[in-house]
Structure formats: structure tokens, C-alpha cells
Amino acid sequence: MKRSEKKLLTLCAFVLLAGSCVDFFDIAWGTGVWLGEFALTWAILFAFFCFCCLLAFTAVSRVIWNDKSFSALAGRLIAFRNNLGRGCWLLAAFVFVFPIWLLQFTALGIVFKGLFLRLTLWTLQLFFLSLLFTVKKDALIDWKVFLFCLALTAGTFSIFASLKLVTGYPFSLGWSEGNRLWDYSILFGRARYDYPEGQKIDVLLETGRQMVGGLPFLIPGLTIKMERMWIGLVSILPYILLGLVVFRPLSGEKYIWLGATLWTYLFLKQGPINPSLVLCAVLVALAWRNKLWLSGLLLLFASYAAYISRYTWTFAPAMWFVLLEFLDVAPAQGNKLNLTPRIRSFLKFSFLGLICAVIVSGVLFYFQPGGAGDAMAFFRTLEISPENVQEKISQQALLWYRLLPNETYGSGILIGLILAVLPLVLILSYLLRQGKWNINIWQKWAMALVLLAFLAVGLVVSTKIGGGGDLHNMDMLLIGLFFVTLVAFYNGGKDWLQNSQFEPLWIKAALILLIAVPAIGPLQEMRSYNNGNATPWLVALTDAPSERALDIYPSEQITQESLNTIQHEVDLAKAQGEVLFMDQRQLLTFGFIHDVPLVPDYDKKILMERALTKNRGYFQEFYEDLEEGRFSLIVVQPLNTPRKGSDFQFGEENNAWVKWVANPLLCFYEIEQTLIDVNVQLLVPRSLPVDCAEILP
Q1: Cα 405 from chain centroid?
Q2: Torsion over CA of 623, 628, 634 and 636, rounded to 10 degrees?
Q3: Distance in angstroms (rounded) separating the CA atoms of residues 639 and 679
Q4: pLDDT tens across 134-187, in order?
Q5: Domain locations in the chain?
Q6: In this predicted model, what pLDDT tens digit does every residue of 292-322 receive, in sequence order?
């Protein structure tokens, strides 16, 4: 082992163990008054834990820096592994499952939430799995096995974190989660509602995304737990499918194929990227290196699917495909532009197809009622037209400060993006500089321009009010960078990776970070939500300000009592007027609340979107309905009216909600009841109306 590697391992061990002691202190402190805020039991546990960490660091340091100690320990571990026989796989299964069970399925996952405690647990799991999976009889840990185990454990953490909200709990699990389930139901499940069949129901969700999320509503008797399972799976399977497709030539090398597929999932899930767009990327991957006519059909379908899912994605599939094809050709000598017959044919037919589509669309629009005499007006009906794009951008404020560290997204968009892609960019740059991957100047320019275009769009959209909470608006960039990596992998990168154990320390560290960084978030997210009976001692151990702050589902008794209360109020109110479920519409979708006609107007997400765009026309109608007492009962989240600034999470969005929705609601309506345990508030018209003219925006 090189001296630089010894220093790095020693530093990592110190940071992990010292950080774990700090995390354990946060757990033990606040449990009693025996010594400071220590309870006697927890003071003893804390002291014992710190002593064990000190012993562990001493032992690790000695093994790292003393070659004889290292050789002796390695020999004993190798002998232990080689003597296990089939028991090796049983032990590996236990090591693999234990951290997942502990963190996601027990109350201790809520207690041991500290990052360093979890990283230490992951490090131990990774070490023993790598040891047990190494097949070389005389090797302690094989480098390629270590990378595979890293991808396997990291991918598994992310998968289980994506499924942590699969539950039959009837109430919404987030600000808009419940109403989003309602959105998904409309395309295939509107028969679930008491609403006239011929009337349209508007939702704040594009057709493509409705289709992906709403497919299970074709199943009779679909439950909320089944739908949440589906939502969890579609946040996993499209990524896995993309990895399986693009790395299918490696199917004979199963470990590499599985590891590369899991890395695909990990890297792209950093967005997270909407499953609809990932499926478009799958079609592009199938089109790459395929027959020209089939590539054209796949790309046409991918572009259409992107358009009906989100208009800003429309051109992404074509740009990804051109990038793949252009980078995949062998570079011409002398840095000449090298367009293969395949690329020329594709560009030619794409251009002709675009011209034909424009002409046909214009002709059809011309003969529509009202279209004659204004043949170019159809451009204005397209979401991707310059007029519409400019209008949509100008409708909402751009909060540029969210590019830097802020309360809404701690690291800020720029730093978050750098952390997500820097290891990959360093590796790709190294491959280019060392001649492991050869492309000419034209290919480099094409790659840079396409990625910069995606970056510019992502930055602008991320700063729009209502966004900037994560990297999901960098979706086109992340997939574009992934496709660049794919070309590099098949043009020298694969051979380099298989011999990467001989590379400099910083490159090996970059490879580890490339896999590990995307898993840190999921590792911290893993936890249980079903420990309502343990809340008193969980509050003490986690220093939560209250039991509600633990974010644990209420007991079944409280949940059922809340449902009974809402049903009772609905039954009384529906005889006096319409009942509006502004929030919690999934209660109607899955039959938790029944025998009430659906009022599709004024969904909370649509209200928020209109508030962010300051749509006075929409709210004028809303305020008139409130003033006239159209709704005898409104079901909404508990309303708060304090205004906040940019030093609060989503402060500007809160202010828009307070100004356009909360204040007017509380002026025209009064609180009938607040069910704080399930985050529901029931509003009824004021018995004594007041003048709200000064309250309205």
C-alpha cells in the first residue's frame, strides 16, 4: 500500500469515527438530568461507544501503518473466508440485509439518523461484502469487486429509499402528494368520482406524465398502497431499464452489466429525473446504432412523448441522439468535420420531416374554423412556439439567488450540480487527456454546445419561483452527460475501467465518489414511518420539538377517527351546498370519503401555480365563489398566514400562497375544525360575513 493511500485511509477512519461520536452525543444528550442532560444509562452507552471508536481507530491505524500487522490480519481474514464454503454466501446475505433492515424497518432508523453513523455502518458493510465476494484465494479484496459492491449497496439504498412511502395511510404524505394521486387517476379512473361523464376535468399535469402515473387505475379495486407502490417503482424501473438497454452488450459479463446498470440509476436519480423523460431516453438508447428507419421511428415517438410530457423536453431526444451519433464516429485526421452517411441521412430526413410537419400542421390549422386568413396563427397554439416560451418564462419571477446556497436548497443549484457531476467530469477529462478516449475538436465543440444548452435551460427553469428545491430541472443535462459517458465507455473507457486499480490515487478516489456521492442522500433518507407507539422515547432520543415533528404516521385509531370526522362533516355539509376538497383529494379517489359529488375546481396545486403567475382573472372567479358561499365545506391543509423572506424554505412561494389563497380564504370562511394529527382543516362560510375588499390582492 502506498504512503498516500495510507494517509487517506487513516484520515477517513478518523473522520468517520470522530463524526460518529458526535452523532451519538446528539442522541444521548437530552435524555435526562443525571449529568448535564445525560440520563445515566445513555451516559454509560455514550462513554462505551467513544471508547470502542478509540480502540477501533487505534487498531485500524496500526494495521494501515504496520505492514506486518496488515499482512497478519489479511492472512487471517483470507483464511476465514476461504474456510466458510457455502456459508460465505449466507454471511454475505446477512451483511447485505442488516443495514437496510435496521435503518428502514426499525425505530432505530429514526434514532440513528446522523450521517457519520450511517457512513460508518455502510463502510463496515462494504468492507465485509467486498471481502466475502472476492474469489481470488490469495487476495484480501479485489478492486473490481470493491467497485461492484459499492454500486450494489449504493443502488440498494436508493431503491429502498424510493419505496419508503409505500403505505396504505390514507392522508397525504407531503404538500401535494395526495392531490398528485388524484391527478394520476383522471385519465383512466375518473369513473371513481361522482361527476358528470361528459364534462372535462382539468389537472395540473401533462398527458404523458398522467399516463405513466395513472396506468394502475386500469386495475379494478386499486388501493392507495398499490398506487404508491407503483409510483415508487416508476421512480426506479425506468432508470434500471435504461441501464440494461445501454449496457446490453455486457450481458455476458453479468457483474459489470449489473454494476453499470445500478450506476446509471444512481447517477440519474440525483435529479431526480421524471420517469417520463427517462423513458424517452430509453427510446433514444434503442435508436442509437440501430437501422436508420427504425432509429427515425423511435426518435419520432420519443420526441412526441417528450412533448406531451413537458414542452421544454421536446427537442431533447433529437439532441441526445445527434450527440450520441456524432461522438461515436471515429475522429477524422487533422481535426476535420467527419459526418458519416448515417449522420447525413439522419439530419437530412429530420430537416425534411420538420418542414413537412410544419406545412401539414399549417394547412390543417388553416381549414379549421377560425383558422382561415391567419395561416401562421397555429404557431401560437404550440407550447414550444417562441411566443409561448417567452410568455411562460416571463409569467413567474426568477429567483437567481437559488443558484447559490440558500434555505430552500442548502447547497444551491450550482454547488449541488457540481457535487453531482464533478467526479464524472474529472474522469472524462482524464480519459481525453491520457488518450484513452479520442475525439476531435469538432466533436468536443458539439459536446460542449449541446451540454451548455441543456445547462442554460436548466439554470433558468431552476430559478423560476416554485423551483430550485433540487436538481430535477437539470434533467436534460444529466441525461446528456450520461450519454456522453456511454460513448466514452464503448470507445476505450471499458478497458480503462477494468484496469483502473493501477491509476493514480485521485482517479481511484473519483471513481469511488462517482458511485458513493449519489447514494449519500438516499442513505440519509432511509427510515421507518410506522412507529407511532414509540413516539415518547423517540422524541427524547432525536431532540424533536414534538411528536408531530418526528413525521410518523398517526395510530390507526387516530386515523380512523379523523376519517369519521371528515365523513360526518361532509354528510352534513353536502345538503347545504358543494363540498370542495381543495386538498386531500385522494380521500375521494380511493373511497376513504364517499357519497359526495366531486368539485374539480380549485385544486391546491393549481391555486399555487396561479398565485405564482399572479393570475388575477382566475382568482377573481375564485373570490366570487367564496363571497357567495358556493362551498358549504372546504377541506384544506391547516392555513397559516405569516409572511416569510428568502431566508426561509420556499419563502416567496409561501408569501404568494398567503396573499392569493390563505388570507382570502380565512376572510370569507372560518375554521370549523382542525385535525392536527392528519394535517387537515375544515372551513365553513362565516356566520357573520365581513368586508374582504382590503384583504384581496
Answers
A1: 19
A2: 20
A3: 10
A4: 988 888 999 999 999 999 999 999 999 999 999 999 999 988 899 999 999 999
A5: 3-166, 177-232+552-685, 236-343+406-518, 362-392
A6: 788 888 888 888 888 888 888 888 888 898 8
